[in-house]
Structure formats: C-alpha cells, structure tokens
Amino acid sequence: MIPYTVNIKLAARTLTGTVHLQNKTAVDWGWQGLIAQGCHSSILIIDPKTAQTIQVLERHKANVVKVKWSRENYHHSLSSPYSLRLASADAAGKIIVWDVVSGTAHCEIQEHAKPIQDMDWLWAQDASRDLLLAVHPPNYIVLWNGDTGTKLWKKSYAENILSFSFDPFDPSNLALLTSEGIVFITDFSHSKPPGSAGKKVYIASPHASPAHTKPAPAAPAPTGAKKALNKVKVLITNEKPSAEAVTLNDCLQLSYLPSKRNHMLLLYPREILILDLELSQTVGVVAIERSGVPFIQAVPCAQRDALYCLHENGCITLRVCRSTSPSPDEAGQSSTDAGESAQELVYDLRSQCDAIRVTKTVRPYRMVICPVNENRAALVVSDGRVMLWELKAHPVKSSTNPSSGLSPLYSPVAFCGTPLTPNQKHIPDLSLNSMIGHSLISGVEPARPSGQQEVLLKFLLTGLLSGLPLPPFALRMCPPLTTKNINHYQPLLAVGTSNGSVLVYNLTSGLLHKELSVHSCEVRGIEWISLTSFLSFATSAPNNLGLVRNELQHVDLPTGRCFAFRGERGNDEPAIEMIKVSHLKQYLVVVFRDKPLELWDVRTGTLLREMAKSFPTVTALEWSPSHNLKSLKKKQLAAREAMARQTVSDAEQSSVESSVISMLQDAESKSELSQAISAREHFVFTDTDGQVYHITVEGNTVKDGARIPPDGSMGSIACIAWKGDTLVLGDVDGNLNFWDLKARLSRAVPTHRGWVKKIRFAPGKGNQKLLVMYTDGAEVWDTKEVQMVSSLRFGRNVSYRILDIDWCTSDKVVLASDDGCIRVLEMAMKSASYRMDEQDLTDPVWCPYLLLPRAALTLKAFLLLQPWSGTFTMDITHVDYNEKDEIKGLIQEQLNSLSNDMKSILQDPELNLLQRCIVVSRLFGDESDLQFWTVAAHYLQAFAQARQLSVADAEGQPPTEGSPSSCPVSHLDICHDTLCESTFFQRFQLDRVHLQEVKRSSYEHTKKCADQLLLLGQTDRAVQLLLETSADNPSYYCDSLKACLVTTITSSGPSQSTIKLVATNMIANGKLAEGVQLLCLIDKAADACRYLQTYGEWNRAAWLAKVRLNPAESSDVLKRWAEHLCSPQVNQKSKAILVLLSLGCFHKVGEMLHSMRYFDRAALFVEACLKYGVMEANDTTNKLIGAAFSDYARLLRSVGMREGAALWASKAGGAGEALLEELFKKEGAEGEGEAELDQDEEQDALLVSTD
C-alpha cells in the first residue's frame, strides 16, 4: 500500500442517529460475522469486533422492519464464493436483496404495500440457496427466489400471521405464530405450497387459565417457580378456549430450540415456557418474580441448552439448563430430592450484564447473538446506540459459593473437538461450547478428569457505537484543503445539536472525533476560524419581552478550551440571526434580529464597531473573497529586503544574498501570524427593501461604499453567496439572481421552489458550483453556465426533509435531514451506498467475505495448510504464491487484523489438523464446514480409539456401544440429534420420557407416554401407565388388554408369528404406529424400522434404530437413510455425509466429497483419516487418495498457490506426477500459460461476484 498523509477523497457515507420504532425488530447477526441494523430507511452494517459501521445501504423509501443475512451452510468454492448477501424488508412491503460489498441491490420484490411481518432464508436444501420465505400481512406466506425476485408460491391462512420459526432439525416443519394461537405446518417444501391448513393449536394465556386460581390453603404455599408451574399445567389446547378464559394472546415470540429436537420456546412478558412438541406439553418454565423485570426477547442457543434473555431494562441474562443427573455431592442427599430433581427442565441464571438507564426516549429494542460462537451479544437501544457484550469464562477455585445452590459449571477438557495436550495453547472463550461443558444426563457417568476447571461466566462490554442525537442539526465543514495545509489537514465536520453540544466528526473514517458540551440551548450556527477552532452560537427561548440569552462561544479543538467570545454581553437582548467570518478569518459580523449588527476582530477578540441605531435591518450578508493581503505582503517584503541589503556589505553580497533573503522570507511568513497585518476586506448586505450595501473594513476603520438599488424581479432577499466575480442572491419566493461582476451583467432565474434558505459555493479555485437549500430539498447549480446540475426533493426522490447543507469537498455535499441522519453525497445527490473495499477504516476488519472470491479461498488454504515448508507463518509473502501485489496486500491486511490470541493458536505446532479445520471454519463463519468437521473430528477419534483398543474389532462396528468408560472422548452434543452415539441418545430419550410422564395432564398425554415407553423397551413402566386408564374411558378395555398382552408376551414361536402377522396387517391397513409398537414388543425392531422407511417415516426409523437396535442392524437402517438422503428428490447429500460419518464409513465419505467436487474438504478429510489410522493406504484406497490429493493440488494451482499445489501433488503418488511435471516446467519458464489461466479464473470469479 502507498503511504499517504492525507486522504483527500472522502467516501460517500451516512452518519445515523436514533432508531425509529418500526426498526425495532430490524437487526440480525449473520454467520458472516457482521451485524445488519435498520435505521429509518437505511441499513447499517456493523463490524462487532472493532465496533465500526463499515457500510450503509440506502434504497428503501420506507422504514426498514426486518433484515436477514443469508445462511452460510454450503460448501464454498470459486463458483459459490463467500459473499455478503442480505435481505431487508420495509414498512411499504418491499423486500430488497443486497450485495453488501458493492452496496448494490440483487433484486427488489414487492407483493403488497403493507409492512413485512417476518422473513427468513430457507436453510435445508443443497440445491438452491436463494429461497426466501416472507410473511405478507395480513395472512399470506410467500416463497420468493431471492436471486431473481420471482415468486414461487403463495399461501393464505385463516388468521393474521405475526411471525414464524423453522424447525432446525426438519426442513418440512414450520410453526406460525398467529393472533389466536400457533399453526404447525408439517409438509413445508420449496417446490409447492403446503397442502393442508396446518394443525391449529390455541394458547390459553397463562394468566387467564383456570389453574391460575389460588391453590387450596391446606397445601403448603408453593414457591415462585412451582406457582408458575401450576399456572401453566394446561396451556395448549386443540379447541378454541372460551372467551372469558383467553382475552388476548400476549405471546411475544415463538422459536424452536436448536439445541434439542421437537422442543419449542414460547415467550411471555413474565415467563418463558419450554414445550415438548411430541406431547404439546410444557416441560419447563422460566418465571420472573413479582419484583423482577419483564422479558422482551429470548434467543435459544444451539451449542448448549441455554437461553439468552433480554429484559425491559436492557439487561441481558444467560440461563443454562440444569443437568438432570445429580452431581456426586448431591447424590448423597435423600432419595426424595432425587425424585424431585427431574420434575422439569430448569434454566439457571448463570450471568447477567448491566442494565441501561431507561427513559421515555431511551429503551432497549432488540438483542442479537453471534451465531458462530454464541458468546457475544449486541443490544440495540432506541437512541441509536449498539452495545456489544462478550461472555467471558473465569476459572474459579472449587465451589466458592455453595450457598447459591447451583451446581458448578465446568469448562470442557477438549478444545475444538480434541482433548488438549499438556502445553497446547487454546482460547477458552472461543465459543460457548469451549467455555462450558455439556449439561449432564442422568445415567451417563459424569467423568470429571483432573483437567476440568470450574468456571464462572461474566459479561464484559467490549464495544459501543453511538448515533447522532435527535435533530435539528447545524452543520459546518472546516476550511477546505489547500496546498499549504495538506500535511496536517483533517476533514472535520462540526455538528451543532439541539441539546447544546457540538459533535466533531472526522469524515475520512466517519467516526466521532470529539464531542464538546459548549452551550446550554440549541446550537443555531457554527463558523470555523482556523482548521482547529470555531465559533458557535446558541439562543435560548425568548422571554415575554421577546428577548433571549445569546451565547457565542470560541472553541479550540485540540485543547477543548471554550470561552464566551462576547465576554459579559448576551443576556436579555434580541436573538442573534447569524454570524459571518471574513475570508482571511480576521473579522466577524454578528447580525441580530432587531438590533444593529456588531463587527469584531477575531484575532484579538475586540469589538471594532457597534452600528448606529439608524443602521438598516440586515436580511442577508456575505463577505467578499477579494482582499489586499498580497499587495501588503509584497510591500512589506520589499521593505525587509531593502533593509537586508543595506546591512550586508557589497563584497559579501553575491554569496550571501540568496540564502539570507530566503531566511528572511521564512521569518517573514512566520512573523505574519504574530504581527497580524490587517488587510482590507469587504462585505455586502441587503436590507428589507432589497437594496445592496457595500462596506469596507481595514484595521479598525469601517467605510461605507456604493449602494446598488434593488432588482424589481426579486422579492425580499434571504441569502447571498459570493465567489470570484460571481455574486448570487436568493429570495423568499424562490428566485436566484446571478451577478457577473466583471461583465456587469445580472440574470434572474425563478426556481419555483419557494424560500431559498441557504446558498453556498463549493471550495476549490475556479469551482463555481453552488449548493442551494429550499424548504423541500436542495439543488446544485453551475453558476458559469447558470443551469441546475442536480436536485433532491422531499416526497419525490427522498423520504426525508433537509435541515442544513454544506460542501465537504469540492465535489461532495453534506446534508442533515429530519430522519436524524447526516449524509455525505456525491454532487449528483444520489443515495449513499458505496463499495466497502474502497473505504478507509480506522481499525482493520477481519472479514474474508470482503476479498475477491479467489483471494478468500487462498486465505483459507493459507491458514489450513500451515506449516509452510516447515515454518508456521502469518506472512503470505513467505509462500510461493503468484498474484497481483494489490490482492496480496489485501490478504495480508486480513491476516494482520486477526487477534494475537488467534495468531498464536494458528501458529501453535500442537494444533492438530482437525482442530485447525474447526478453528478456521469458525473464523470464516462457514456453517457447513463447521458442522462437517465437528462430527468428523468426533468419530475419527472414536473409531481410532476403538481400533487401538481391539484391532480385532469387526469393521463398521461403532465402538461406542458398550460402556462409555471405554471411550473417553466426550459425547457429541445432543443438538446433533441422531448423529450422537446410541448409548447417549438412548439415555437422553429415557430422560425425556420420564419428564413427559411427570408432566402429563390428560389421557392423551398418558397414552403417548405409554407408546413411547413401549418403543424404548420400558415395558414395566408402560404397563403401569396403561392400567391407569379410568373405567369410564372408551379406551379402558383396549388399554387393559394391551397391558395384559405386554406382560404375558413370551418368546414362544407361535405367539411371535401371530403378533407379527397382526402387526403387518395393521400396517397394511394404515395403522403404522400401532403395528410398529407390536413389532417392538417381540424384538423385531429392525422390521419395524424397515416398515417405517417404506412408508416414508425416515426420521422416526432413524430414531427407533438408535434406541432399540444392535450396532450392525442400526447401521443398516442408517445406511438406507443415507442413500435416501442422496436421492435427487431429497437432495440432502450434506446430511447423508454426516450420517455416514457417524457410522464410520470413512471411505464412502471421502468418495462422496470428491464426487461432489468438494476437493479441499475431501483432501483434508482423507489426510485426517490416514493420520488417525482409520484408513490405510492399500490398493482400494489408493485410487481415492490419489484422486483427492491431485484435484486439491489443481485447485491450489488455480488460485496461484504453487507451493501448496506441489506439496499435495507429491502426496498423490502416481496421480500427481503429471501435475508435478507441469508445475516444475512452469517454474522454469515462469510461463505465460499460467498467467492466462489466472486471468480466466479471475474473470470467472469476477463474473460470479458481480452476478
């Protein structure tokens, strides 16, 4: 990069202020690592690590109500690169899909003209990543293609839809929150609209439910949480509740829990309910005590069963689900307590951050959580602040506060899926699952290796963005850039606000440079008197005589020193109308409303003249740009030179002359400031009749000059601007009068836009552009040609009114508007989105998405393939990589912006390949990579350990059957659902049924519990439940017989064959669930799974295989499922790969990755398999190894990484030989061929990025 002192070119940008109420829900934190936030009709893109606004998107005409980043759950390559794609929706029903880097819109979508209620990108299919589901009021859901803007389908429902939530485990499930209850859709698909109207469920409001009446006094009064439980015993009903029972559905939010399947969260102001959807039953409640602060929002986490909650006072709390297994110290307590322990899901408060001061205008709006690491939160406040909180884990000595009653949290032993080695560096706060270990499940032995450290969680405020205060604003840009001040110039904009403070912004970075509290009332105007000091004036509200307190302050920026410029004057006098500083910053004119003007000397701060009472009333005034400073300087210089010549004798003159004179000239220019030559300057003003006066000021003499009679075509003159030989007058009727003083011509132009509020000439020699402000907008004129260049009008092309204007450079204007924003625009005054890569940021931002597609992939490969030729490095120049220096520089900037912790980890030789893959996928926010490597790391280690334990083990047999103690690798989190080990999965399901059993409140629930217990093989407990059926229940007989059947089943041949026959008949006649139950009773669960799969119940079959079958049978069922997932009509190959990983079919996974052209992932995976010894190089595998490695080498060559390409080609054996030869030939010739190939690749990449 070229070193420079001053960036003369300013980027167009928008400084934003307070947030509109309609923007309340418009905020989203994407996998890309950036936050998008709606502010009026603009969208801010914020980098949370450095707390900078790095882009503002402007195209909406109405307030933005929703923003959503697209998901990153696909494999990234040159054809599907890392890109920043955002969808935003506004209050007028328009949806725009943005390419955020260039600030342009991919497509615009419009259906109705009402605010979009909710929208989200579809996450589940490998085929298309462009689908966007939106709720168009009042009751439509529409599926759009977010790339082309075409509508795929539209479906209406009976009630008004408020929001929706996708099931993170099953793409065909969608829940709609409506004005009356919840609608569950189970047949959601992108190809056609849902067929049915969905299953409607009504919510009886917790407060109105009949259970809310006081419990009988005989029972001891229950505690807060118990009370809440009684209250919500019956919550979800299928029939519409009676009118008195439910007055209003005050449910604020519904969302599926991403941490465990089939659970949903409902948020009310005073409680959070956790539902188990299989039972439609509340299994957990987080209630707030009477004195507590109500909830606004809750965000469930995926990595741990935890909730982030936002309260009305702006406090964010983290609640973590309590383990169901008693900790060793509790296990010694009485058994009755142990029974209590699993009565419900309990979410313990583990951490909370500080609240904010809530006032009428300041209240918390929304919180978003980082989806990659789930350990950072951002809070949007209505005054435009964004507070960035980070969760930190503090190690503590064992049980410091046993009184709190919470079981301790432990940090996990593993880092990124692999146990830590003794001297390995790691970041404990990398993500939520590296900060705290699993919630334990009863029956799974809590292994507490010595390495586990007890931790406390704390919130830390790591960043704060603040917006502008409420309008109105007074703007003034500092004096323009010249050749003299170029070395220390800063483009500063002073903004006077309504509360009396002056904000100074540096427009290069767009950041607040200083905030100075100068006045006690609204700032009316600002004038700079040097590059580092300004005068500002404010007037208080008038008293009953119409008099005010005037404040005129002189502010010195570097020191912040501030003093009253007019001394004691200013109390009880007419209001100041305007202040004007002369061009040489020598004199100041102060114009009052009903009082003659004052003339001051700025340098000494003395009053030169207070005009007489008879002085005319001033309506507009401007200083002339002409002065006699140059002629004065020449005279002075001539006199000094003459003196110098006299003092130097003639003999020395020739040698000394030039140097002495140049020294004198230097001294002269320095003394100029201290001596203060008073040059002659002029100003003109108009009176109420439109007569123009001309006044000359020199030193402390003031002379009245010529007067020019008014122009008949003009009304009362409102403002004047003068530059060079052009003088422009604007009047209250919208006429502009252009005077050419040299040619003595005047020309009046009517603009028909009403009162001309302000006119300003652009800076720069010979630049005769003029900016004009009206009540309804602004225009730029060219005064040479006397014609309009561009125009901006409220209601026509913008939705805001202009409050103040100024030029900030010779070709950019700055406008303050009533939506609380200040915009720096090109002279054409079009919207202010800009290219992010052209921006000049104060702090470098880590965001690989900002790089060109090939550069982003290069950066990823550079981090993954460490060490390079034996050394770990963070300098891309150490690698043989041919690319334009500019792009290399950008990649290096990204590497430099990584935190020191991250750099030390990436350069740690102890970091193994699997951990490196996980760390890099977290850094890139690559959802697909992260999921793949998390599952792969777990099973590669599990199978490698099993192989070590018994080499004789048959292949394809999961090791984790048998006691978990033989496998010290920690479990996969339950959020991976059916990918977890069978033993762990079974325990979790038993736990869940136990909870459902405690919570059941109707016969329906009991029946479901009994069915579930039968499938799980818990026959004794199931019989007990079946015998509970009361005699007046129509199913009484049936249930009693079933109980008898279950208890008497013997494994005799005839009874088995009969039951099997009955079961198959039942299944054939549409009673699938009942048939499957019978088959499970006679241990024919494998057949049951086959039937379930035949009837398309793939998820149910996988569940049953996990809880009932032995490893070999279960493996068959899951392999069939994987084949089904690969089929073209399902097209979920990425999910199939994860299933095969959990079965240990590593060779198949390698082949699939390679056939899907995921060359980088395939090569690294095969490498990991070889390292862990779960794949051996033999004839069958060599073909895969060669193909994977050589294709990866080609990929590396195509992005210019020759060194990496050579390394992988040499690993590929025979398959890589040809490639190696090519590479070495190239090195010899440094051939043109490669350059061409690079250009082609580059063009492809550019096409992709512009599409």
List the helices and strands and how they pair.
Layout: E1 13-15, E2 27-29, E3 35-39, E4 42-47, E5 52-58, E6 64-69, E7 85-90, E8 94-99, E9 104-110, E10 118-121, E11 131-136, E12 140-145, E13 151-156, E14 161-166, E15 174-178, E16 181-185, E17 199-203, H1 224-231, E18 236-237, E19 253-256, E20 263-267, E21 271-276, E22 281-287, E23 295-300, E24 306-311, E25 316-321, H2 328-331, H3 335-341, E26 347-352, E27 364-369, E28 376-381, E29 386-395, E30 409-410, E31 414-415, E32 418-419, H4 432-435, E33 454-465, E34 474-477, E35 492-496, E36 501-506, E37 511-517, E38 523-528, E39 533-539, E40 550-556, E41 562-564, E42 576-581, E43 587-592, E44 598-601, E45 606-610, E46 620-627, H5 629-647, H6 650-675, E47 680-686, E48 692-698, E49 701-708, E50 717-723, E51 726-731, E52 735-740, E53 745-750, E54 756-761, E55 769-774, E56 777-782, E57 787-793, E58 802-809, E59 812-817, E60 822-826, H7 853-864, H8 885-896, H9 900-906, H10 913-924, H11 927-949, H12 982-999, H13 1003-1016, H14 1019-1026, H15 1036-1048, H16 1053-1068, H17 1072-1081, H18 1085-1094, H19 1098-1108, H20 1111-1126, ...
Antiparallel strand pairs: 1-60, 2-3, 3-4, 4-5, 6-7, 7-8, 8-9, 10-11, 11-12, 12-13, 14-15, 15-16, 16-17, 17-18, 19-20, 20-21, 21-22, 23-24, 24-25, 25-26, 27-28, 28-29, 29-33, 30-33, 31-32, 34-35, 35-36, 36-37, 38-39, 39-40, 40-41, 42-43, 43-44, 44-45, 46-47, 47-48, 48-49, 50-51, 51-52, 52-53, ...
